[in-house]
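# nightly structure sweep
# worker-07 picked up a monomer target from the shared queue
# config: single-sequence mode, recycle default, output format = structure tokens
# input follows
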Amino acid sequence: MPDPAAPSSRAAAAADCELCRQPGGLLVAETPLWRVVRVDDADFPAFYRLIWQAHVAEFSDLDAEARAACMTAVAAIERALRDALAPTKINLATLGNMVPHLHWHVIARWDWDSHFPQPIWGVRQREVPGGARARLALAPEQLDARVREALAALQPPASAAPRP
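# output follows
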């Protein structure tokens, strides 16, 4: 049986991986380690996904420094959504059952949303008159800007680099 950790197995998995081949949503921010996209979902207009750039399946595949960078970015997205929208709850999920590539879902939820208190993949509980987007305090593009600003604040400024 082939070793799933062998380089050829990892390369084949990455070539067949949806998140290696496609952005996974509307690109909001990107670093060499991760990218953040907004998922286009009419029921959940404040649904972001942090996708690890390297093809790894599990959070424990990352070393301690990479895990810290990943969770710092996830927390920055969460904080931006909370500050901009004051949702009832933020849902964080890293399921990866359908796409075994490390990614985190960061989803602002409200007690009025179509599925609350069920998960977004659960059974619809109600219709939202006028649609969920109409109930947001900001347009999706304005929210993207807030998320982008929060993530940019994580990056050290270029001027902070040591001089030769």
